[in-house]
Amino acid sequence: xxxxxxxxxxxxxxxxxxxxxxxxxxxxxxxxxxxxxxxxxxxxxxxxxxxxxxxxxxxxxxxxxxxxxxxxxxxxxxxxxxxxxxxxxxxxxxxxxxxxxxxxxxxxxxxxxxxxxxxxxxxxxxxxxxxxxxxxxxxxxxxxxxxxxxxxxxxxxxxxxxxxxxxxxxxxxxxxxxxxxxxxxxxxxxxxxxxxxxxxxxxxxxxxxxxxxxxxxxxxxxxxxxxxxxxxxxxxxxxxxxxxxxxxxxxxxxxxxxxxxxxxxxxxxxxxxxxxxxxxxxxxxxxxxxxxxxxxxxxxxxxxxxxxxxxxxxxxxxxxxxxxxxxxxxxxxxxxxxxxxxxxxxxxxxxxxxxxxxxxxxxxxxxxxxxxxxxxxxxxxxxxxxxxxxxxxxxxxxxxxxxxxxxxxxxxxxxxxxxxxxxxxxxxxxxxxxxxxxxxxxxxxxxxxxxxxxxxxxxxxxxxxxxxxxxxxxxxxxxxxxxxxxxxxxxxxxxxxxxxxxxxxxxxxxxxxxxxxxxxxxxxxxxxxxxxxxxxxxxxxxxxxxxxxxxxxxxxxxxxxxxxxxxxxxxxxxxxxxxxxxxxxxxxxxxxxxxxxxxxxxxxxxxxxxxxxxxxxxxxxxxxxxxxxxxxxxxxxxxxxxxxxxxxxxxxxxxxxxxxxxxxxxxxxxxxxxxxxxxxxxxxxxxxxxxxxxxxxxxxxxxxxxxxxxxxxxxxxxxxx
Length: 721
Hints:
Neuraminidase, four-stranded antiparallel sheet, 58 strands
């Protein structure tokens, strides 16, 4: 719909009212007078030429007209009859002539009819432009709608002519204003199809319209890059120089990816561009970030670092701050017109995420849903190619928000739910050609297993329940754990008997710890609208006690002193200091460490507290009696899930984000760890809050959660009603 179409309705009205003065204006399509882009190609209609990387291909005039018609309605199927009518203006032309023009376009664009990147044939219907089209606003003009006037000569004819023209203009403008205030058509999901089937976890998707680029968990502790067709089928690994890769964006010309590389748990990672389909990566200046995206013209980058959003040139230069938020900005995206940046603000301590936007001049920073009730759970949106809809995830479902026009008051917009279970969707991206969404569909389940050192096989533990984060009483008779994916706290004997539930929804439980005397269980809990809290519940069940009511900081990953009078704990992110709570006085003090540390573990004999460095690559230890710190062990990869042996002689941990992930231990007094088990062959359940948990059974054997989940890529076919 356009101003022109609204004018058409007004013209019909005037014709019926006074046929002598005006006839309906002819519907006209926009006339492209200057250059535009199709993917990496520069299209120059005035020269009948397309250019890429200095190579120019000249087209016949009618071939260029076919290209312009397809580009004007990118993503839409244009019937053959309409194309012929628009390009050859009523001349007698057969389908074969049109087919030859499309074939010439495919040769010029080096397109494949079987896996089209630019032009798709819709059998028995017509053709569709599926390649990304960029029209700068100033380069599209609308042809005037002019109709001849009828009547007698002289002043009366001129007067009537102007009267009719005035009525047409008034009714056209009025009709357009009404249309602009009308709601957009309602989209719906017509079909959902599973595209991948390899069982490997998928965590991020990008697409150029014909290929999918997927961030994939390889099952051995690393994130790798894979690719596949948007039609589904087998995926293939794309070799890169990165140990772990993060996908941020694909360039407007679809020639390169914006990626991050990391090895441990560092919150910010260097930004790189990775050429497609292959080539050597290139650093983007000296930028480090946890998210980023290109502007529609490819000249500007937006990137997120700490609590700030920045703009920079595509080379990583001319950096300046765009906005600062309370929380962590993630997944920034430019609007299709380049005037806004929309992003999610994550508040990990409150388990909350909300969508915000800001103008590219730094003005009008605001939440997208300011009147939402409860804890927001919206994240990670993607605009449709024409900018009319914004698709996003809320909870586990896909929603659409018609975009509000910024002039004439705009149209009223309300979110539209597109899916409603049973799959949990995430990592949403819209197809550049329109008509489809791609997302990761998830169904979560784990299996608790023990590694038998004699048989060297994994066997089911506690009957293979879907649970993790186990902690054992000092006498080895009892165990507490958290069920997956519900995150409910349980307690039972180590043979699985006398099992009772200690928490219930909507409370989210995490990382329980037995008290030294075995009478209580300490755990972190989240309730909507509040930070993570430390709760203490009787081991026999009962009402939990909140240890620090009224505090305004998160409390997680706790550990007991030997006498049960003190608790050391961290905060939700690794940068927060480790704190110590005196249970008698309820006073909290900071554990002074030589650097930023997290994940404290008090040894069972009370002599040491082990912690992790902020990047998870180093173990530090405190001699509690002497009050002295020393660096204990450093590893190449990321260290996680520290567990002391019951006799306090060893500390167990896993090492991931390396080529050969391993389960290790280090003896007190030694400076090097030993490998107990290589875990390349185990696909581990990765929880959204803590990652892939590992632990130690009372007999010293390693415990893991095997992943039985499905995290596959799905396509969602859209229909606009």
